[in-house]
Amino acid sequence: MNAPLWVAVPVVVVAILAARADVRARRIPNALTGPAIVLALLAHFWFEGFAGLRGSLAGMLIGAGLLLPGFIFRFTGAGDVKLMAAVGAWFAFPDALMATLLAFIAGGLVAIVVAARRKILRHTLLNTAWLAAWVMRPGAVAATPPPGSGVRFPFALAVLAGSIAGLWIRV
């Protein structure tokens, strides 16, 4: 990634504030994500013109779009989707895709640690394999999804880790 400082600082600040709120209250406030999205769009337009605005909108849609299925099937919360939309808007396309994928990887690692600590790692891995098989079969979206593993954690921590990793990888 090649994020300038005017992108990196807001991404880290928004992700830290969201992670703090998510850990404390298991909620990511709209008062954080809404303005973060608007400011990202305005900043990209200000610094890069219409091309920057388009890239920021694309990043927002990528971040939100990739988390939306998890929200639909109740694996993530709406705040997680809006936070990833905000982070994606700041990163813009194509960096938003990398940041989102890194957040997924971080989320998977956190889920493994949480499941191991709760002594349900085997059960979680089996349910994850079942879910992956369900998603790959034709007509899966119309059918009822298999049960989740029950492993819950503040996903904003994964977004924070993915964002920082995305900024670090560019060096």
UniProtKB/TrEMBL annotation:
The chain crosses the membrane at residues 31-50, 57-76, 96-116, 151-169. Keywords: Membrane, Transmembrane, Transmembrane helix. InterPro entries: Prepilin_IV_endopep_pep (IPR000045), Prepilin_peptidase/N-MTase (IPR050882). GO terms for cellular component: plasma membrane. One of its GO terms (molecular function) is aspartic-type endopeptidase activity. Residues 12-112 form the Prepilin type IV endopeptidase peptidase domain. It holds the Pfam family Peptidase_A24. GO terms for biological process: signal peptide processing. It comes from the Bacteria. PANTHER family: PREPILIN LEADER PEPTIDASE_N-METHYLTRANSFERASE-RELATED (PTHR30487:SF0), TYPE 4 PREPILIN-LIKE PROTEINS LEADER PEPTIDE-PROCESSING ENZYME (PTHR30487). Belongs to the peptidase A24 family. This is Prepilin peptidase. It comes from Eiseniibacteriota bacterium.
